[in-house]
Amino acid sequence: MTTKKKNSDTLTGKSKSLPGIDQLQLQMLQGLPAATYTCDSKGRITFYNEAAAKLWGREPKLGVDQWCGSYKSYRTDGAPVPSETSLMSVVLKEGRAVTGEEIVMERPNGERLHVLPHPRPIFDSKGNLVAAINTLIDITDLKKVDNALRESEVRFRTVANTAPVLIWMSDKNKNCTFFNKGWMDFTGRTFEEEAGIGWVKGLHPNDLEKCMNMYVTSFEARKNFYLEYRLRRHDGEYRWIASRGEPRYLPDGTFEGFIGSCTDINDSKMNAAILEERIAERTKALNEAVIQLERSNLELAQFAYVVTHDLQEPLRKVKTFTDRLMVKTARKLNEDENLYLMKIKNSADRMSGLIKDVLNYSILTRSAEPYIPTDLNYIAKHVLTDFELLITQKKATVELGELPVIEAVHLQMNQLFNNLIGNSLKFTSSEKKPVIKISSSDVSEVEKTAYRLDRNKRYVKISFADNGIGFNQEYAEQIFEIFQRLNGNDEYPGTGIGLALCKKIISNHQGTIHAESSPGVGATFHVLLPKKQF
């Protein structure tokens, strides 16, 4: 077959073993890392290098096998390629180079490779076509990468288009190149209308400058951003959205633009505005109520203070003249008359104690004494000294443990210990000798949580335990209310203010108190106080 040269994209030269190729060129072809082989004018393979044999997975017979050394060949759509229509046959029949046509080669073991052939005709010095040479580039790995990228792109678009948010993407020149289905449905515009900077037309006029400044500044700094602005919806309503943007980079660190998402926050923003307005109204009303309550408390405290002082004098006279009357009529009155006078005296004494307790309570309400380091050991020992006679009379045993030093109002701590120890000595059982135990321990984190204490402060727990008459646990809260009594006044005298005073003192010190008890077993009062007030 004789064909004249049709273009200059050929190899020329002379060779004894291979027409058109000399020995030097042959050695160069053999050393190429790319698969290379040649055919004579009839398509018979006359040369192949090691790379070609490795690509084919076999070694063809020179001068026998035709067109290509692969086991089988296919088009990219999977259709077989007959040898008579192979690219090498086209080159030899038409005398022209063929480029850019991908094929699939199958090795004897069934493995298939994607290959990009580059067959070219070889002409002799007279322009006659004498052979052809083909270079095969294995692009299997590139195809896998390309397919993976395509698959990744499909997955991204699928995820983006099904996401319940608006997603956008831009290039490094600030032009938007992608909007998901959520964005398009929201705006009701086409991609062509939104692409580039077309999306800006949907911004609320009052938000345009703020939005663009943030957008441009973030691009130049290549930093993520968060912005809230109003975007026009397909029905013409401007809706508040929260937009977030993140810079995109290639694996080599090259900046590629931004990707971002937008969430419709209009309803929550409107609800928040309504809530803030209501909170402001409630806060104002609450502040007014607090001011009114403080005024009422102050007036009540002043009233209690004045009343108790004004009651002291007439009550003192009642007690004085009752005592005188009892002395003068001691032998003249009968038993009932003496009983009546005794009841008058006892009532006057109780009234006097009640007035003193109310006075103490009112003083606590308006007390502004400073907190100072207070040794509770000293307080406890001082109070026990005051009760020394009663302790002896009742043959009571008091076990006093080591107590801490805390920041407190000294006088109020003295009153607290006095009331709690006095309670234990008052509510004793006639069937057993009284035992009072006073101890302390640090408050755990669990206890802080349980009693809603400040997690940032350290607290100490002072426990006052006795083996007295006790009470039902259901009354553990009631006993701290003012004027609340669980026992009759004849058997256990008192005013019902003592424990209320204790609760008030502990409240003044940012602490808490609770009781544990069982009838006939005794009671334990736990006082939790911060070691430092500030």
Task: Tell me what you see in this structure.
With 534 residues, the protein is of the alpha+beta class. It folds into four domains: 23-138, Beta-Lactamase, CATH 3.30.450.20; 145-264, PAS domain (Beta-Lactamase), CATH 3.30.450.20; 278-366, Helix Hairpins (Orthogonal Bundle); 367-530, Histidine kinase-like ATPase, C-terminal domain (Heat Shock Protein 90, 2-Layer Sandwich), CATH 3.30.565. It is built from 14 helices and 19 strands. The strands form four sheets. Strands 1, 2, 3, 4, 5, 6 and 7 form a seven-stranded antiparallel sheet that branches. Strands 9-8-12-11-10 form a five-stranded antiparallel sheet, sandwiched between helices. The longest helix is centred in the middle third of the chain and has 63 residues, at 266-328. The model is unreliable at 1-16 (pLDDT under 50).
Note the topology:
Layout: H1 23-31, E1 35-40, E2 45-48, H2 50-56, E3 72-74, H3 87-94, E4 103-106, E5 112-117, E6 120-123, E7 129-138, H4 140-162, E8 166-170, E9 176-179, H5 181-187, H6 191-194, H7 208-221, E10 225-232, E11 238-249, E12 255-264, H8 266-328, H9 335-365, E13 372-375, H10 376-386, H11 388-393, E14 397-400, E15 405-408, H12 410-426, E16 435-442, H13 445-450, E17 459-466, H14 498-508, E18 512-518, E19 522-530
Parallel strand pairs: 14-16
Antiparallel strand pairs: 1-2, 1-7, 3-4, 4-5, 5-7, 6-7, 8-9, 8-12, 10-11, 11-12, 13-15, 16-17, 17-19, 18-19
